[in-house]
Amino acid sequence: MTILLLEADPIWQLKLRMILEEFTDTAIVLVTTLQEASDFLNHSTPDAVIANVELDGLLSFQLFADVSRTYPIIFITGQPDDSHLRQSLSLSNAGLLVKPFHAYTLVSALETRLNQNKASVFKNESSKTLSVIGKHRQTLQLPLSKIIYIEAEGNYAIIYQDNTKHSVKRALHTIVPELDMSFGRVHKSFIINFGFVNRVNLTEKYINLNGQKIPIGRKYRQEVLSRI
């Protein structure tokens, strides 16, 4: 886990580092200006942010106003103001702590926000669907959470669910962008939903997926290892 820490005060930099290193298993990226924070966020996405409300005489709220920045944010300040509270509450993924605070207060606030974010991501992911054309030319929306695996068969992709399967005239690589993080390529002919994995046998190079043996391709072995 990576936490972006925006703090210019050396004493609070040390305090926050000590708290995070003692109570969390995380990599800390420390920046002291809003420009440094902006530069980091332009190429990286942290798991969470702890940001002083004021840096360089500017407020840090605007940096995180972009709705695409959904990671948890804990704003901290030593000079509380009603407007600070209102601005932090205007962001659904943010909270505000007033210095000085106990280590437990920060850790509790951070964990609460992280858990809320995970629940939100899970809800969004579980509602995603894959569009296919049914036997009668009707459009079907298949919930991704119900898809067990997808197999390439000639010019077609066969999508397997519990008791049904659907055939679509598409290459596997064109389907991948429409899937979520639950899925991964394990063979040139197979994409699987790792949520249905029962067992992985690296010796015999197969995955037991809901009772079905799926082969592991040599070039995809590392992908499998990273997911188990």
From TrEMBL:
Signal peptide: none annotated. It comes from the Bacteria. Pfam families: LytTR (PF04397), Response_reg (PF00072). Residues 2-114 form the Response regulatory domain. Residues 135-228 form the HTH LytTR-type domain. GO terms for molecular function: DNA binding; phosphorelay response regulator activity. InterPro entries: CheY-like_superfamily, LytR-like, LytTR_DNA-bd_dom, Sig_transdc_resp-reg_receiver. This is Two component transcriptional regulator, LytTR family. It comes from Spirosoma fluviale.
